[in-house]
Amino acid sequence: MQTQPIVINFTGGIVSPGYLTEILEAAQAARVSHVRFGLRQQLRMDVPSNFFKAFLQTCSEKNITVYKAKEAVPNIVSSYPAAGIFTTDSWLREGVYKDVFSLFTHTPQLKINICDSRQSFVPLFTGHINWVSSSAEHFWHLYIRFPKTGKLYRWKELVYTNDLPLLSQRIEQEIIADKFLFFGNEAADGALLYQRVKALTAYVNKPATETVFVDFSLPYYEGFNKAANDYWLGIYRRNEKFSVDFLLDVCQVCLQSRIGQLYTTPWKSIIVKNIDPGTRKLWDYVLGKYRINVRHAANELNWQVEDHNEKGLQLKSLVIRHFDKEDVRTFGLCFAIQTEPASNLFGCVVIRKQQNKNPHRLKALERYDILYKKDFNPNGNEMILFRESVEKDFIGTYLASLCKFFYEDRSATPLLPTKTLQEVVVKKTTVVHQCPRCQTVYVPALGDQLQSIVEGTCFETLPANYSCPLCETPKEEFVEVEWEEG
Fold first, then answer.
1. pLDDT (tens digit, 9 = 90+) per residue, 126-164?
2. What class does CATH assign to 3-74+219-289?
3. Is the four-CA dihedral 69, 70, 76, 78 of positive or negative sign?
């Protein structure tokens, strides 16, 4: 059956259950059985070609903006899904995100990320225009990643919240207007872009400060989890496919329990927040009805694969089976599978398919390079080659070795002492005289009261007829020994 791939953007990864219901009902009427969520928190589906026109008509009537996949504009990515569950002590609260989104009156043509610097759930720099919260309330760091490059430029100033949309638009206009300088050019001049935009745009700013990032650690984002007095639920699908019927029931439960928003994530999962404990049975019923597993292994959740890429999913599955077999630890790492040269994925470790210029080359001859980011920082852009031209069947083995290298590197500086040090007590010793038969010791400081020898009498000054008070051994037979005081 011929299909038309389409994309529907959810700004910042938020969607109301009512709006999602309208989309899913239109999809259901067009004989769509499953949908997916993309790396940029958007909805993706394949609509049968013979129902596509009717689907577009229905979406138009309901004010649903639909793009053909190849013509889609990039969605605005945000760390909004992490707010309140993975970040709780930041000035960047849910209301601030909504205020920022409402200020965007233009449709961005470049990728924009809006993220909290205190979280590690949503990638910071997978956009072209990347806004990262600073320690100063309502001021943002700006990082430009020039299109089709890994080149990252840090803006010279912090920018005030209300000016994010305006400055984003001006930067976008300058980059698109001069593609020769700013597209696919690893030598792109960020300072030149700054000068051009600064000359044309007035905005509230302050001097840039050092950006403080948290160490990367991907939180476990699946299953029921406690948050204050409520629960939140994360749902991930191994094959990335979400049943339309299942999502319709999810929306129904949300509406019934007065949950106003669902959240899509860059890990192609969804999150439902503010679940009242009293509705837990409803959620368990829906999950059970569709046999949804919400406790996958952590080493399966830390992967990014290009959207709608079955080969990438197959390779991911192959590696995970190897990890399970060898009991490989992957905490603190995330992996990306890159099969297209232009894609930009988030990962500490990148498995990159070598580009085959010969279309007749056998698939069995496909090779992959394994690279990792400097310091294993997934937000970094400096790549280090670990292994080159690896056959698919051996990728898992080499990745296990790279994981071992990661932990050995992290353990190079010991945080615990190599052994427990016990306090050494130094005791003072002195030479005394001891009876060789009964082991009685004459201690000058004590004397010998039984024989009227006063305290402080040295052994040498004892009377010639002195003998052991216990066994009467003569004085001259006593031997010298060391005596520990105290």
1. 999 999 999 999 999 999 999 999 899 999 999 999 999
2. alpha beta
3. positive
